[in-house]
Give the backbone structure.
Amino acid sequence: MRFHVIGIGPIGSLVAFHLRRALPPALPITLVVKTKGRARDLRTSGGIAIETGGMPITQGGFDVEIFDPLEEVVFDLVYNKDGEMRLPSAARAWRREGELGPAESMDSVQKPIESLIVCTKAHSTVGVFRRIRRRLTSHSTVVLLQNGMGVYDHLVSELFRNPFDRPQFVLATTTHAARSKTHGSMFHTIHTGQGDLAFGIVPDPNRERDFERSKWNPQVPPHARALSLDDIAPFTQNGAPRDRCSSLRDTIAALSNLTSLSPIWEPMSDVQVRLKRKLVVNACINPMTAITESSNGALFGNETARYVTKTICDEAAAVFAREAAAGAQSRDFISRDIEESDEESYGKNSPSQVPEAPRGLRSFELQDEVFRVARRTSLNYSSMLVDLWKGRNTEIEHLNGYLRRLGQHYAVPTPSNDLLYNLIKLKERVVPAARI
């Protein structure tokens, strides 16, 4: 089985590094990079370097695929709409030009992807999947490890509407902190803060299997219940026929073996709480540091930032409380009617009293988590600030934008959150005077 990792930024590098160290050499790992230049830099540097405590360690042993705009043009010329090769000579020429190495021909690049770990920016994910949609089948597994929420819903509604053709999805979140080294190789990452890697399996869209059956088995004492790989698919020896969910089983097993990242396989309901807590942390830290152009620690030493954090957490807790009261299923997606809701939905069918948010999502708990993360990453600059510095779009739609849409759907006003959202949208479009 082959693993693919796309989005080789700090977190993607961290995961790929430890995945290569945890898996036997016989299991290949392919890094999908944007350009030929990045592929050359990866080969020149010998692999991915992770620096912890000032000590960098480089890990090689990766295959490389190039994911740039020219590749898509050539692919359309070489293959027809059904994926059948029509210009073998052009394919051979592209193989030489693409510099994918001796093991990577155009044929191998277009084989189905078995396991894909996605660490790209949330707002670019759908575009990435459009390019590789032909390589994903119902036997594939996709791990989404990104900031923000709503990506899964977008993928399902736009690209994987048919549940019988849909890959199995794993939603993951991490509290590890990492940043790219300022100078040197773009594949040199500094691991600035230890944390954990939590993940859970999205329920089977075909409803044929319960991936959490052993966890809730009433015939087993509660203290002895645990998630089991056997609930996903039977174990298969080399050469034996593969089950539809075999890649999912192998992916969960591989993630569980990343001991250096403190992996935690949890029921989806528990992962949802983690995702929402991280959503609020990023909805506070990212836009405020981006607006003030300050580090995480510098910002959260003042009372104004604490006040804004409290209002954001109050609003988020109210939204989560209304969602829970409405009996909404815990999931990583909001339905299309939430995405299409507008300002007119505010105040409709609004009960006089908002119930308390679920445990872990109450305002005081969210505030504690924001300040804990801010202290732990005090020397870091948020990804949103870096994106603005580099003139890139931010992930605001999947952070404050997600919270805003969820609040609109449940008729819970989120004015402070909306203000931060609009200020970042403004800042994305306004060029600072110093750069004109």
In short: Confidence is low (pLDDT under 50) at residues 90-108, 328-352. The first strand starts at residue 3 and ends at 6. The chain has 16 helices and twelve strands. The longest helix spans residues 268-292.
